[in-house]
Every structure is written in C-alpha cells, then in structure tokens.
C-alpha cells in the first residue's frame, strides 16, 4: 500500500499525528505535573484555613464533648478527602492532635509516632519557620527534615499558622495545622490523566487512519481511471473518455482530460488529413512532371511538342514551389516565429495595388470589380505586407469561384472604432455545412480538389492565421448559387 502516492500520504499523516501527539503528550506530562501539584497545594491551603476555623471553635469550647467530637470527625473527613496526615502543633512543636486518616493502622503510622519525642517534632526546622507568622502558609517538599525519610518517597507538606488575638489586642501565632500528603499520590493523578490521553490518542489515530484511507480510496479510484485512460490514449486510442461526475478538483481534472482527449483526437485527424492532402498535392504534379519528362526522354513526345510540355512541367514545379512556401509560411505563423511589423498605412491604396497585381486574371475572366470606400483615405495600423497577402488571397479566391463576366465588390467603412474590409462575389457560394471547415489546411469546398488546379488549399488558412496574429476577426457569409462575402477588421491608425 505504501508504494502508492496515497500510501505515502497516509504514512506521512500517521507520522505527523505521532509527532504532534508526542509533543502534546510530553508537554502535557510536564505541565500537568505542575498544574496538579499547584491545585493540590491550593486545596491543602484551603483545607488548612478551614481546619483553623474549626480549631478556633474547638479551643473556645474545649469542655463541650459535642464540639470535640465534631472537630475530630471534621479532621478525619479532611484527612480522607485530601489523602493527608493532619497535624496540629503548638508554637513549641508539640503535637496536640494527629489524624493519620488513610494511613491509620499502618507500619508507616507507627514509625512516625516512634520518631516523635514526648509528642514533639524532633527537629526545630520542622516548625520554626511557620511559627514566625510571616507567610500565610509554608510549603515543604521532601521528607520534612527526616520525618518521612523511611518512606523513601517525597512528601508535600503545607503548614498553615493558627493565629489569635492576645489580651494586648495583638495578633499572635499559637501554632499551626500541618497537611502532609505523599507526592506520588499527587503524581498518580498526572499518570492517570496521561493514560487516558494516550488511550484517546490511539483511538483518535485509529479512527483518523481509517477515515483517511476511506477518503483516499474515493480520490484514488478516479485518479486510477485517469491513469488508465492516459495509458490508452498514449497507445493511440484517442476515443477514450472518462465518466467522472464529481464537482471537485478531480471532476475538473477529468473534464480537462476529456477536453484534451478530444483535442488530441482532432489533432490526430488533422495530422492524417494533412498527410493525405500533402501526399495528394505532391503526387499529382510530380506524376505529371515525371510523365512528361519520361515522354521526352523516350522520344514519345515529338521534338516540336516538347516546348509545350516543358512549360507544363515548369508550371507544375511553380505550383510545388508555392505549396512548399505556403506550408513553411503557415508553419512559421502557427509556431509564433513571424514578427509583425506594424505601421500606419492607407488600406484603400493597398487594395488598389492588389487589384492591379491581379488585373491579368481578372481581365482573363472578364470580371467586373467594384470598389466602394466610405472615405477616400482610410488609415489603419497593421503589418502592410501581411494584410496585402490577406487581400490578394481573398480576391484571388473570389476570382477563382466567380464565373465568366462575374462581379466582385470591395468596400471599406468605419464601425465601432475599427476599419471593416468586405470582399464579396456572385460566384458559386459555399454550403453552410462547409463554412466552418474552409479555414482548415488543404480544405477545398469543391469535391474535385479545386476548380483552379494551381491552388494549394492553404490560402484561407494563411488568411486566418495572419488576422489571428493581428488579434482581428474575420467572418464569412455565403449562399449557394448567389455568392460569398468575407469581412475582416483592422485597428485604426493613431490620430484617425
């Protein structure tokens, strides 16, 4: 499992959980020790204050057996609740009362009694500090200067001074109440809490791992589908599609993958069509050239006809040359290698020059060309050479599909801050189902591979790419038997 990406993620997740809980556990262990000890000290101090109040009542009513019994039971209850030995000591260290509570009838209690000298604490340090009365209570951790040494465990002792008002109205210390509890008993609380924490961590980690594993499966399944589909597409099965309907990032990835598959399938179809078209466009003139040359070399073609056939060969070579040049130009445009040389120029003047260049084939078909310019001079900002190629290709295309004595109209006008150039003809028109495909390389609307056999089928593809490089639009409107109209836009020159 851990060889997969999700296995590694689960491993990292478990490691992070372990590190996080370990740090939390260590901090909890140390901070909890101080917290529990501080809470115990506060509780013992409050218990000492409470004992002092009952001690005062007891001293004021020593002859009252009921008060004495209540005082003893109160100390016994406090001893049991605080798990402490309670001492009541006067200012000379003499023990007036001792309650062992949970330690009663133990060897430990007996050993403590044996250490008391005539009912008095054996070491002055055990009571002198508290008798000074400078503090509200005195805290001592350890063996209380040897008193608890035999237990071999540290003790916490809180010494709460008992104060009274003397006859001279001066507050005096008459003794103290001691609460002694073993520190391991305090630390046992910390250990218990830590055990519960560790148990909770183990349960939380187990549940988290299960949930992560379940959710990882939900993520890994569609990713495996994407991986398998990618493998099939890499093998050439471009028809493969993913059926993942989730609305999260995985669903978006699947949608993008399907779009990529469609693009690859279209690209593959274009590649095959391109190879087929190039093969056809190259095979036809090369077959003609080879046939004519073989006829001349074999003597099949008489010498007086050879110049005519050599002219045909020259025309076919020129056609091949145009095809190769158009392919190279188109490849440069699609790869972004062409750098536009933008400048301001008169688009109307450029159209006039293009018509002059095509005058020979226009007159050959006796086509009427009408120009309609909204203004005599209209300046645009573009690459003049590239736009000249656009106009020549569109006009040449119109001439090709317009019959004898047909009509071509060229107009320019301003609209929405742009210059519009429209080239229309009354030729054979284009079927609506073919309009979207006329921009493809080698596509020819007539099924006989083109009325004009000299065409390469790349003219409109070049037009589209040039205008795309200029970030301009071109649209086409056509009706079978009535003609076709191409309209493209250009940016206006600065100051126009």
Automatic annotation (TrEMBL):
Q: Which residues cross the membrane?
A: 12-32, 196-217
User: Which intervals hold domain HAMP?
Assistant: 217-269
Picking any one GO molecular function of the record gives:
phosphorelay sensor kinase activity
Q: How does it sit in the membrane?
A: Multi-pass membrane protein
Catalytic activity of the protein: ATP + protein L-histidine = ADP + protein N-phospho-L-histidine
The family database entries (SUPFAM superfamilies) matched by this protein are listed as: ATPase domain of HSP90 chaperone/DNA topoisomerase II/histidine kinase, HAMP domain-like, Homodimeric domain of signal transducing histidine kinase
Which UniProt keywords are present, listed alphabetically? ATP-binding, Cell membrane, Kinase, Membrane, Nucleotide-binding, Phosphoprotein, Transferase, Transmembrane, Transmembrane helix, Two-component regulatory system
Known Pfam families for this protein? HAMP, HATPase_c, HisKA
Annotated localization: Cell membrane
Does the keyword Transferase belong to this entry? Answer: yes
InterPro entries in alphabetical order: HAMP_dom, HATPase_C_sf, HATPase_dom, His_kinase_dom, HisK_dim/P_dom, HisK_dim/P_sf, HssS/ArlS-like, Sig_transdc_His_kin-like_C
What is the top-level taxon of the source organism?
A: Bacteria
Please give the GO cellular component terms listed in this UniProt entry.
Answer: plasma membrane
Return the EC number: 2.7.13.3
SMART domains from the UniProt entry: HAMP (SM00304), HATPase_c (SM00387), HisKA (SM00388)
Q: Please state the protein's primary subcellular location.
A: membrane
Residues annotated as domain Histidine kinase: 277-494
The record, for PANTHER family, names: SENSOR HISTIDINE KINASE CPXA
Protein name in the entry = histidine kinase
Which lineage is the organism of this entry classified under, starting from the top rank?
Bacteria, Bacillati, Bacillota, Clostridia, Eubacteriales
């Amino acid at each position: 499992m851990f060889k997969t990406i999700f296995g590694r993620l689960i491993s990292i997740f478990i490691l992070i959980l372990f590190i996080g809980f370990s740090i939390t556990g260590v901090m909890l262990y140390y901070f909890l020790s101080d917290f529990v000890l501080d809470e115990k000290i506060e509780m013992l101090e409050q218990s000492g204050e409470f004992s002092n109040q009952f001690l005062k009542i007891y001293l004021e009513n020593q002859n009252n057996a009921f008060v004495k019994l209540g005082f003893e039971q109160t100390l016994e209850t406090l001893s049991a609740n605080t798990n402490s030995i309670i001492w009541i000591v006067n200012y000379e260290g003499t023990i007036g009362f001792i309650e062992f509570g949970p330690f009663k009838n133990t060897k430990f209690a007996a050993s403590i009694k044996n250490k008391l000298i005539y009912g008095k604490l054996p070491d002055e340090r055990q009571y002198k500090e508290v008798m000074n009365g400078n503090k509200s209570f005195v805290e001592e951790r350890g063996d209380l200067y040897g008193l608890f040494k035999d237990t071999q465990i540290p003790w916490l002792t809180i010494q709460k001074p008992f104060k009274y008002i003397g006859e001279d109205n001066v507050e005096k210390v008459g003794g103290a109440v001691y609460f002694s509890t073993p520190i391991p008993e305090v630390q046992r609380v910390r250990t218990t809490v830590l055990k519960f924490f560790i148990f909770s961590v183990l349960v939380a980690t187990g549940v988290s791992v299960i949930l992560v594993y379940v959710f990882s499966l939900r993520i890994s399944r569609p990713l495996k589908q994407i991986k398998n589909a990618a493998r099939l597409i890499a093998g050439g099965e471009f028809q493969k599609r993913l059926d993942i309907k989730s609305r999260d990032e995985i669903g978006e990835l699947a949608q993008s993958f399907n779009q990529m598959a469609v693009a690859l399938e279209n690209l593959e179809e274009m590649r095959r069509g391109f190879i087929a078209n190039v093969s056809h466009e190259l095979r036809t003139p090369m077959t003609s050239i080879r046939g004519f040359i073989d006829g001349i070399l074999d003597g099949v073609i008489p010498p007086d006809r050879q110049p005519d056939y050599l002219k045909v060969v020259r025309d076919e070579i020129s056609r091949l040359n145009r095809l190769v040049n158009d392919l190279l130009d188109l490849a440069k445009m699609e790869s972004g290698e062409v750098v536009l040389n933008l400048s301001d120029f008169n688009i109307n003047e450029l159209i006039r020059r293009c018509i002059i260049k095509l005058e020979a084939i226009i007159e050959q078909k006796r086509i009427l060309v009408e120009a309609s310019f909204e203004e005599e001079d209209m300046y645009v900002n573009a690459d003049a050479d590239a736009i000249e190629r656009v106009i020549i290709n569109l006009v040449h295309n119109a001439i090709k599909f317009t019959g004898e004595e047909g009509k071509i109209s060229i107009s320019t006008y301003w609209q929405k801050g742009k210059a519009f150039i429209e080239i229309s003809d009354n030729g054979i028109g284009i079927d609506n189902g073919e309009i979207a495909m006329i921009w493809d390389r080698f596509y020819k609307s007539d099924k006989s591979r083109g009325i004009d056999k000299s065409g390469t089928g790349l003219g409109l593809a070049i037009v589209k790419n040039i205008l795309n490089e200029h970030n301009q639009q071109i649209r086409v409107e056509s009706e079978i038997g009535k003609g076709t109209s191409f309209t493209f836009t250009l940016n206006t020159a600065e100051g126009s």
